[in-house]
Amino acid sequence: MPDNRPDRSNPEDLIREFDGGDPVELLRWAARRFGKRLALCSSFGPESIVILHMFSRIGAPVRIFTLDTGRLYPETYALMERCEAFFRASIEVFSADPERVREMVSAHGINLFFRSPQLRRLCCEVRKVEPLRRALNGVDAWITGLRRDQSHSRSQVQLVERDDDHGGLIKLNPLADWTEEMVWKYVREEGLPYNELHDKGYRSIGCAPCTRPTGPCNDFRAGRWWWENGSNAKECGIHSYRRPGIE
Ligand code: SF4
């Protein structure tokens, strides 16, 4: 029986406790170690679909949540429903606080993100970062689909790491050392559902106004907030990795 009390272990000890590199073994260890205080954050990118499938192979139940910014593509909402049916899973949806959205839009307009990096970050804070804080309430460890080769700023992502943005929780990135090709090979071989926008040239998919297709020669996240220049511009704030040497 998993012990579901809050885990008070030193995060560094937990990081040392798992020294394997296999994502399925990592997820099996995490399910055993954290029980009901483990959660998977899914944005319905192919990485989170792969992780969902790995959990279904393990047979361990896991809490799954997603952040609904209110500005996602219809194709992403459709995929959310397809995933619930495919994996027979129930996905918790965390939305932005409507009062904060109302205040933000009244003050700055509905498409404030185009006007300045500061307003773009405000929108991400209201629609993503704050809902994530609520979603992680009562969680000891959370799982993401981050990969090192998604961007330069993510090049230091570890399989198991301490998340100081969220009070020192454990953050698990089981696909940290996978490439984009490895992810798509897995999705295709297993016949998993995916966002149909990927067939139209989209690679990293976020909110509709802030995402556009990008070619294979561009950076993986080049289609996100493409109008912003600056090396740390391709993060919304829920993962605050920084490109070394750049603020
Ligand atoms: S990605 Fe764009 S629309 Fe979505 S929360 Fe951030 S700024 Fe707002």
Task: Please explain how this structure is put together.
This protein is an alpha/beta fold. It has 7 helices and 6 strands; from the N terminus they run ααβαβαβααβββα. The chain has a 6-stranded mixed beta sheet with strand order 3-2-1-4-6-5. Helix 4 links the parallel strand 2 and strand 3. It binds iron/sulfur cluster.
Overall mean pLDDT stands at 88
Strand/helix succession = HHEHEHEHHEEEH
Query: What's the CATH C level?
Result: Alpha Beta
Q: Summarize the biggest pleated sheet.
A: 6 strands, mixed
List how many beta strands DSSP finds.
6
Helix content: 25-40%
Bound molecules: iron/sulfur cluster
Percent of residues in beta strands?
A: 5-15%
Which structural category fits the helices and strands?
Answer: alpha/beta
Quaternary assembly: single chain
How many helices does DSSP assign?
7
Which CATH-level-2 architecture?
3-Layer(aba) Sandwich
Q: Outline the low-pLDDT stretches.
A: 1-5, 243-247
**How would you write the strand order of the largest sheet?**
3-2-1-4-6-5
Notable features of this structure?
247 residues; 11% strand; alpha/beta; binds iron/sulfur cluster; Rossmann fold; 7 helices
Short description:
The protein is an alpha/beta fold. The chain is 35% helix and 11% strand.
Which helices and strands appear, and what pairs or packs with what?
Layout: H1 11-17, H2 23-34, E1 38-41, H3 46-58, E2 63-68, H4 74-87, E3 91-95, H5 98-108, H6 117-135, E4 141-143, E5 160-163, E6 169-172, H7 180-190
Parallel strand pairs: 1-2, 1-4, 2-3, 4-6
Antiparallel strand pairs: 5-6
The structure holds iron/sulfur cluster (SF4).
